[in-house]
Design a protein that fits this description.
Layout lengths: L1 H20 L3 H6 L5 E5 L3 E5 L4 E5 L4 E4 L9 E5 L2 E5 L4 E3 L4 H12 L5 E4 L5 E4 L5 E5 L4 E7 L3 E6 L2 E6 H4 L3 E3 L4 H6 L2 E2 L1 H5 L14 H5 L7 H7 L13 H14 L13 E4 L3 E6 L6 E7 L3 E3 L2 E2 L3 E6 L2 E6 L3 E4 L18 E4 L3 E5 L6 E6 L4 E7 L3 E6 L2 E6 L3 E3 L7 E4 L5 E5 L8 E6 L3 E3 L2 E3 L2 E6 L2 E6 L3 E4 L16 E4 L3 E5 L7 E6 L5 E6 L3 E6 L2 E6 L3 E3 L7 E4 L4 E5 L6 E6 L4 E3 L2 E2 L3 E6 L2 E6 L3 E4 L17 E4 L3 E5 L6 E6 L4 E3 L2 E2 L3 E6 L2 E6 L3 E2 L2 E9 L4 H9 L4 E2 L6 E5 L3 E3 L8 E5 L5 E4 L10 E5 L4 E9 L2 E5 ...
Helix pairs in contact: 10-12, 13-14, 14-18, 15-20
Protein name: SH3 domain-containing protein
Pfam family, one: Glucosaminidase
Organism: Metabacillus litoralis
């Protein structure tokens, strides 16, 4: 009863599919109420809805499409009775003509399909009604046929009829019955008849048949079986010459019915007369090519249809067109008689078009082909072969031509990648992240199963391998399974590195490749090798190919690349103070995640671990065991080499950066002895300043001193030398504020160009102008001076005690010959781009008791190095501008910002403290620069001075040049006070005098 119900269900399913495939064309066409006519403007591919290439249309071909050509997506049209697409950019919309509408209406008139074109080997070209080629149908694609005449086969594309040459391509036409009831009445279930064997011998492949099979297939894996101790015997294979196959085919032809014999419902077998006939899977909505049957071979069938044979094909039924076949007697021995379908759960996927062999005659005879990429249920697995059911017969395919599916119970897999290695990925969602490779022919344990993937243990993570390039395995060939007894120490490969299996005698066997983007736990360490676990197996990687991670117990490290920097981090920002040399070994004082801590002079410095490897002190002859730093220091006048004198010749093993102060352990006539990262080293005294070093240079300018003075006078230089109390103004340029007869009284400046403050109540040329008071400013009148002039108080609230300088004042300060280079005045000529060589501790000594600047030595040192500017100048300048750290700008000003909030800001160099409203202007500038801490103001101020005056193309590298700018006189000058540069020299000198050793570079201008 169950069998009858199952049989009826299959029949009705096929009937339903055939009904769907036979719907009238006008039903499909009728769905397009407003079709759009397009013209193809370039040869373009036709794609099915699932993206498969099923044909091509040529330039100028016309099609009706169902969606608007202006859409961004591809255009849809009818490919026979199926939906297909072409790229929208390959088309243009055109107007519909009467002629083309007639062709469209003709297509609507077709009532139903009469068959289909099935091409599995050749492309089929199609033409329009003028016999011009308009495209082609690809092999493997099928299209329903609307009608036939003596010359042509008619098909519909995009609602328009196109034709195929019948005389050339009729062999690819498969007829469909229009009356499904008639078709159904001829369906005969042959399964029960085929399940009973007659007197002809039937070969069954069961566990007990291995001994018989052993004599028939060649055992190509004898060596492999002996090594793996596999008990299963291989079926002997004997290759058949082409002549033998032809002879057997001739015998079959003589013993079968004539080719013109008609199939009846009682016909149980058919013979293939074409070179090969296709096999189709019809379980989906369309026919899918799954294989071929070979010429001359006989096959049982399970049902009869008017135009088709139904055959058993693995675990389902497939269909073969009757064209190219004739009825036949049985004449075969390898009929599958245990059941009609295979019930095994193991499946294989073919890697290429795969031959299927019959071995029942003692010779291998190919009787079918499985197409590439086919998933097929197997009957049984042998060492080198799979047995399969194809068209009711038991056949054999080589394992090398297919990969087996995996079951959840499979614990191992074998790589069968033809390219030799297959990638291991770290992420299922991102196939670009390759972390290693596995070798072809090698077996591996797996931890997880995902759709299309194996999860394996790969180093410290789960790696993923495509299951499509693997086959199930039993793991018996693996002799180096890991016991997972790893240490807590990891290595990282330097580059793609081979991992070897060392358990077999003879040479090492590679089984994996690890990349430089993952770490691996060490199982054991040897002289030249690390033992690690990769893909669940114990492997060996050469030490030179890997970098071991550092542990707290590692006391030394080796530098593996050129010039690794040494950084000072005491200021909170990394400042480079030296460098280490490739292939040298150094002692470290602490271990951090990404850094080594080393002793660098009298402080701890830091070296990045990248580019270094763990090492030992073996081989270090100059390791320090007795010396200590003294209080004496030197300053590097250039990037200074540190030498090891335990070798001959001397070996450079480090560098101290120019300007860096460094303590010494000993003195010689030509060398300083030092401690450098735990080793005793030596630097040349010629390049390491100990004590005071002064160097004087001169810069010539191609104009005279008089020219310099005249240009400076044009920009109103100021002086506080003359303590001016009163001045005179012209009455017509002011307006009284207070209407009273007595003095003093207030007045405002009404002259748009301001009003000059003169030394006498007249405008004679001999009268000196102290300054100019801007429009709108207030003056205090103390008396009327006659002739329209008034005597006023000098407005110190505006000018702060400064007035226009006389020419003699300018000459006094601008002429370098007025200064003795052996006095404090020489410090205005110190090159600001040269370091003095003071360290943060020495700077803190200079700042002791200096208000908010006290303890800011690190900030000044950091600002100096980051800006490349003299650290003593920065301290001196800041002390001058801040009144020894106690000015309003230094201690902080509350600034009301545009966002409505109040910020405390600092300005340590008086930057933008312009005359008139110094505090407001300077605090606004500090806010814009985000100087919200004293440290930020020091470091930012250093950068401002360096960028604006020293390193921004102006060439102002001394205090003198900052004030007078001899390269471009009267432009870009730091101050208006003629004595500004000289005033800074006292502090500058006092700072230098407090240092026990320093370097001093002077640059003095020379005018013509």
């Amino acid at each position: 009863m169950i069998q009858k119900f199952f049989t009826r269900s299959i029949v009705w399913m096929l009937v339903t599919l055939l009904m769907i495939s036979s719907f009238p064309q006008n039903m499909l066409a009728g769905e397009e109420k407003q079709p759009h006519l397009i013209k193809v403007i370039t040869d373009t591919e036709i794609k099915s809805n699932d993206g498969v290439n099923i044909g091509k249309v040529y330039k100028d071909t016309l099609l009706f499409v169902s969606n608007i050509p202006g859409d961004k997506e591809n255009l849809s049209f009818h490919f026979g009775e199926k939906e297909a697409t072409i790229q929208v950019e390959s088309t243009v919309q055109v107007e519909t003509s009467d002629e083309i509408l007639k062709r469209y209406e003709l297509g609507l008139s077709y009532s139903e399909s009469v068959g289909m074109l099935l091409s599995h080997q050749k492309t089929i070209p199609f033409m329009d009604n003028t016999n011009i080629n308009r495209g082609l149908i690809q092999p493997g694609a099928e299209i329903f046929v609307q009608k036939l005449d003596d010359s042509y086969i008619y098909i519909l594309l995009g609602g328009i009829d196109y034709i195929v040459d019948r005389t050339e391509y009729e062999s690819y036409f498969v007829q469909l019955e229009s009356n499904l009831k008639d078709e159904n009445s001829s369906v005969v279930d042959l399964k029960e008849e085929n399940s009973h064997t007659d007197e002809t011998q039937v070969v069954e492949v069961t566990e007990d048949s291995d001994a018989i099979e052993d004599d028939k297939l060649e055992n190509s894996d004898t060596l492999e079986e002996s090594e793996e101790d596999i008990q299963e015997k291989e079926i002997k294979e004997t290759l058949v010459e082409d002549t033998e196959v032809e002879n057997q085919s001739s015998q079959l032809q003589l013993m079968t019915a004539p080719e013109n014999e008609i199939f009846t419902k009682n016909t149980k077998y058919f013979r293939v007369t074409d070179e090969q006939v296709p096999i189709y899977d019809n379980r989906s909505s369309s026919l899918k090519l799954v294989g071929f049957l070979s010429k001359g071979q006989v096959f049982p069938r399970t049902r009869d249809y008017t135009s088709w044979h139904q055959i058993s094909y693995g675990d389902y039924y497939a269909y073969v067109p009757k064209n190219g076949t004739v009825p036949s007697e049985k004449l075969i021995q390898n009929v599958y008689s245990t059941s009609l379908l295979v019930t095994n759960t193991r499946m294989i996927t073919t890697l290429t078009d795969t031959p299927v062999y019959d071995n029942s005659t003692g010779k291998l005879i190919q009787y079918a082909t499985l197409v590439k990429g086919l998933q097929h249920t197997i009957i049984k697995e042998y060492t080198s072969w799979y047995s399969v059911l194809v068209s009711g017969r038991v056949g054999y395919i080589r394992k090398s031509q297919a990969v087996s599916s995996f079951l959840s119970t499979d614990s191992f897999f074998k790589v069968v990648e033809e390219k030799g290695k297959t990638p291991v990925y770290s992420d299922l969602a991102d196939n670009s992240k390759i972390i290693g490779y596995l070798y072809n022919g090698q077996e591996y344990p797996r931890l997880e199963q995902h759709s299309g993937w194996h999860g394996i243990k790969f180093g410290n993570v789960i790696g993923y391998v495509h299951s499509s390039v693997t086959t199930p395995a039993n793991g018996k060939s693996i002799k180096n399974l890991s016991d997972d007894s790893a240490t807590n120490i990891s290595i990282t490969p330097r580059w793609d590195s081979v991992v070897y299996d060392n358990t077999k005698p003879g040479p090492l066997v590679p089984f994996a490749v690890v990349r430089d983007n993952k770490s691996y736990k060490i199982l054991k360490e040897y002289t030249s090798w690390y033992a690690i676990e990769v893909a669940g197996r114990l492997g060996y990687i050469r030490k030179k190919n890997a970098i071991r991670e550092f542990t707290d117990s590692d006391k030394f490290f080796k530098v593996e690349k050129d010039s690794i920097p040494v950084y000072d981090n005491r200021s909170g920002t990394l400042v480079m103070v030296g460098s280490l040399v490739k292939d040298q070994v150094y002692e470290r004082t602490a271990n951090y995640t990404s850094w080594h801590q080393i002793q660098f002079g009298d402080f701890k410095a830091y070296v990045q671990k990248e580019g270094t490897t763990p090492s030992s002190d073996s081989g270090i002859k100059n390791l320090n065991t007795k010396y200590q730093n003294t209080k004496k220091t030197f300053t590097a006048l250039k990037d200074l080499e540190v030498k090891d004198n335990s070798t001959s010749p001397l070996t450079t093993f480090g560098f101290i950066k120019e300007g860096q102060s460094y303590p010494v352990i000993s003195e010689g006539d030509k060398w300083w002895g030092i401690l450098f990262a735990g080793r005793v080293g030596y630097v040349k005294r010629d390049y390491a300043l100990g004590g005071i070093y002064k160097e004087v240079s001169y810069t010539d300018y191609n104009y005279s001193l008089e020219t310099m003075i005249n240009k400076q006078m044009m920009v109103s230089p100021q002086t506080d030398k003359y303590k001016v109390q009163y001045a005179y103004v012209a009455g017509y340029l002011i307006s009284a504020v207070e209407e009273k007869d007595t003095y003093p009284k207030l007045a405002t400046v009404k002259g748009t160009s301001g009003v000059n403050l003169r030394s006498a109540p007249n405008a004679n040329s001999t009268t000196w102008v102290y300054n100019n008071v801007p429009f709108g400013k207030t003056l205090t009148i103390v008396d009327y001076a006659g002739n329209g002039w008034y005597k006023v108080e000098y407005p110190r609230h505006i000018f702060g005690g400064f007035s226009n300088a006389y020419e003699s004042d300018v000459r006094e300060y601008v002429d370098p010959n007025n200064f003795d280079i052996n006095t404090k005045s020489m410090y205005q000529f110190v090159l600001l781009s040269k370091f003095a060589g003071a360290n943060p501790t020495e700077l803190n000594n200079l700042l002791d008791g200096k208000g908010i600047l006290e303890g800011m030595g690190d900030a000044f040192s950091k600002g100096s190095k980051l800006a490349g500017i003299n650290e003593i100048y920065l301290v001196s300048h800041a002390l001058l501008e801040t009144g020894n750290g106690k000015s309003t700008l230094a201690t902080g000003v509350n600034y009301n910002a545009p966002d409505g909030k109040t910020y405390k800001v600092y300005n340590m160099f008086g930057i933008n403290a312009t005359d008139g409203n110094a505090t407001a202007n300077a605090s606004k500038f500090a806010y814009e620069e985000e100087w919200f801490t004293p440290e930020a103001a020091i470091i930012g101020g250093a950068k401002f001075v360096a960028n604006r005056y020293v390193y921004n193309g102006y060439g102002q590298d001394t205090i003198y040049e900052m004030r007078w700018n001899p390269a471009k006189p009267a432009t870009h000058q730091y101050a208006t006070d003629v004595g500004w540069a000289e005033k800074q020299t006292s502090n500058f000198m006092n700072m230098y005098n407090k240092l026990t050793s320093y370097q001093l570079y002077l640059d003095i201008p020379k005018y013509q």
